[in-house]
Amino acid sequence: MERALLHCDNVYSFKNLKCYGRVCKTHTQSATAYRGFGIPQAILIIENIVEHVASYLKVEPVELRRMNLYAENDSTHFQQILIHWHIPKMWDELVKSSDYYQRMESIRQFNHENHYRKRGIAMNLAKLALGFTRKYMYQASALIHIY
């Protein structure tokens, strides 16, 4: 839950963001992998919110994402200052190099012409931190044989 709450902002600067989590015990085992430690779930939630807001405002999701990206020296919701933050520049380069808007227009035309077959396109961001939040989680041992 801690990792999910640390990543609930993904790469966006939402000034009024408040995240809450509740850990629950169940009587069944989890059927999911534990490799993401809650990070993929948190990113999925915030990206879904961005899609809903873009739909409500009738704005392209790509544009809404760009408008809300963190900037250099912004502070996250857990007060980490972002230095060497190159995401906005990378985002602009990827939108341009992928011909996103040209592809979007051809998809709109295809969807208008075809009643049953539809196409779509999306661009999403993901901020994945490295490391753990507790020092004891870094413990490890190794056995090395030198001959």
Description:
There is one protein chain. By secondary structure, the chain is mostly helical. It is 38% helix and 0% strand. The chain contains 5 helices and no strands. The chain has helices spanning 2-6, 39-57, 61-67, 87-97, 100-113. The protein starts with a helix and ends in a 34-residue tail after the last helix. The model has no long low-confidence stretch (mean pLDDT 88).
Short characterization:
The chain contains 5 helices and no strands. It is mainly α. It has a single domain, classed as Aldehyde Oxidoreductase, domain 4 (2-Layer Sandwich), CATH 3.30.365.
Unreliable spans are: none
Helix percent reads 25-40%
What is the rounded distance between the termini? Answer: 45 Å
Determine the mean pLDDT.
88
Shape, per Cα inertia axes:
extended
Helical run tally: 5
From the alpha carbons, calculate the radius of gyration and give it in angstroms: 20 Å
The number of domains is 1
InterPro entries: Ald_Oxase/xanthine_DH-like, AldOxase/xan_DH_MoCoBD1, AldOxase/xan_DH_Mopterin-bd_sf
GO molecular function, one term: oxidoreductase activity
Organism: Adineta ricciae (Rotifer)
Protein name: Aldehyde oxidase/xanthine dehydrogenase first molybdopterin binding domain-containing protein
Layout: helices, strands, pairs:
Elements: H1 2-6, H2 39-57, H3 61-67, H4 87-97, H5 100-113
Protein name: Aldehyde oxidase/xanthine dehydrogenase first molybdopterin binding domain-containing protein
Pfam families: MoCoBD_1
GO molecular function: iron ion binding; oxidoreductase activity
